What does this fold into?
Amino acid sequence: MDLARFHEAKQAEIKALLCAEVLPQPYTGFRPDFREALKKGAHNGLPAVIAEYKRASPSRGVICESLSPEETASQYAQAGASAMSVLTERQYFHGDIAFLERISSHFSKTGALIPLLRKDFILHPVQIAATIATPASALLLIVRLTPDVRLLRSLREQAERGGVQCVTEVFNQQDLNLARESGADIIQVNARDLETLHVDRTACLKLIQSCPPERGELWIAASGMRSNQDLRDAADAGYDAALVGSSLMEKGMPGISLRRMLRQEDRDAC
It folds into this structure.
């Protein structure tokens, strides 16, 4: 089971945070509103796009390590991203929690007001505290990683008390039921099954159609999107936003790739 290795990969981080002599202090700067940015970002029949800084993945290996977080952030901001997802997991995604501060500082200099989503395998309260100490506007919780409803609720409420919104990721109706029971209202449907790494975009589209968003819920489609039509399909199905990572980063031109997705341009045109 792949989730077991992700769980194991976080144990050293959790232990280090628990053993730290000084606890991370909450970030006191401005956090752009993640939910509001996604609400405003949808237009012209397309969902808002959360563009991802993704250097590597378990299924692809190294995707793109030549671009700094700052350069990628600049490209995404100029290309029309509504929010930015930042992978901070080290072992499999070659990320770093320090990327959040670097990107936020860069945005402060350029005047961009783009909220940041910390994307990682978060399963312990001390990781929530560490996230609250960063400029992240939101963080990711994965139902299959923390299937205990009480823990899901507790982690979300801890984050929200610290000013950080929570995106709760599901893969199927069972996950969705647990997410809703925990009180989650930003639902991300991952077309990639984290246990098998298989991508099924059709299942992602069918889930929102068979279990329509309830009042107040905001839905995000994630994984497997490569084209303008993929974005339109997500919007037509009822998604408010789409998270796109690998297809933007893989050619080392994330800004150009995002513009092409948003404008229905030929990805291979030069």
Q: What stands out?
A: The first strand starts at residue 48 and ends at 53. Strands lie at 48-53, 56-57, 61-62, 83-87, 116-119, 138-142, 165-170, 186-190, 218-222, 241-244. Residues 98-110 form the longest helix (13 residues).
